[in-house]
Amino acid sequence: MIFACGRLSGWDTSGVTDHGLRYFEDYVPGTIHDCGSVSLSQAEIISFASQYDPQPFHVDPVAAAAGPFGGLVASGWHTTAVVMRQLVDHYLPVEASLGSPGVDELRWPAPVRPGDTLRVRATVVEARRSASKPDRGITKTMFEAVNQVGRTVLQGTATNFLLVRPDA
Amino acid sequence: MIFACGRLSGWDTSGVTDHGLRYFEDYVPGTIHDCGSVSLSQAEIISFASQYDPQPFHVDPVAAAAGPFGGLVASGWHTTAVVMRQLVDHYLPVEASLGSPGVDELRWPAPVRPGDTLRVRATVVEARRSASKPDRGITKTMFEAVNQVGRTVLQGTATNFLLVRPDA
Asked: What would the pLDDT profile of B13-55 be if each residue is shown by its tens digit?
């Protein structure tokens, strides 16, 4: 379902799915949100890493075959970036998001190889109103990506600032 | 100076600078390494965010002007990615790097706006030999990016696995 709220007319919402999470109050600790799945091709892995992380095991299939992972693997930052896209499309509130001050315990426990399918999910671990700014709340979200054989390839805990519902 | 070590013939080293850090032993706790500077244009900010983090304050200058940052700002993941490139070029050991299991306390304390110049530096905070694998060591590095007015815009602590010197 495509998000078609009139209040979003200020920017291009094509492709933004209506996940139903709009304001701080919608993020309930303990709830788990499916954020879809994503896959990286070898060409995408090499393209991203050539620009941002050109270590041999990310950009050169021949060198990578003899390297620590026995083959080409995605930059952890590439995996993180595509998981972020899933979170934007399936989890973060399109209007109420005020950004993030940071992420804790970001982990890449297993390599991501070309063609792997990563399922992404987000768990609300904490939600509290701001003590100093009454218009917002602070959430902590554990996000994770699991590959097609059930291995976790990415995990982390993000802090986010979100507007409270206008009539709250 | 261009890295021209014969042992690197297996992959393209064009553009890789010789920062003199080659193996685990070269990472001495307490030392600070200048990793150069980097800048993001508005077009680059929008291009990265359109693919990976299409929140209005990263992709739409008009919406961003009325948003929480009062203007367009880079995705924190974009800042992290370009800082990673500086670390690859100026700090990580091109042959001895065995990848990273993760990053702790990743922070974006201030926004990055188009045209900001970010200076990147890396501080070795810990270096120890692996107890289980004698061919490698484990380093912890605090990396940070500071803008042209002295504000820290990115900070984090990375763990890395590195080969020890072959004759060590």
From this structure: 455 557 889 999 999 999 999 999 999 999 999 999 999 999 9
> Measured between beta carbons, which residues in chain A are less than 8 angstroms from residue B100?
76, 108
Point out the residue among B52, B69, B97 whose CB comes nearest to the CB of A84: B52
Q: Which tokens go with B20?
A: 């003199």
First-last CA distance in chain A = 27
In tens, the pLDDT along A130-150 reads: 999 999 999 999 999 999 999
Cα separation, A121 vs A125, whole angstroms? 13
Which value, to the nearest 10 degrees, does the dihedral of the CA atoms of residues A83, A86, A92, A93 take? 150
Collapsing DSSP to helix, strand or coil, A24 comes out as helix
| Torsion sign, CA atoms B94, B33, B142, B16 | negative
* Model ipTM value: 0.90
d(C-alpha A101, C-alpha B154), whole Å: 10
B83 to chain A: nearest residue by CA?
A52
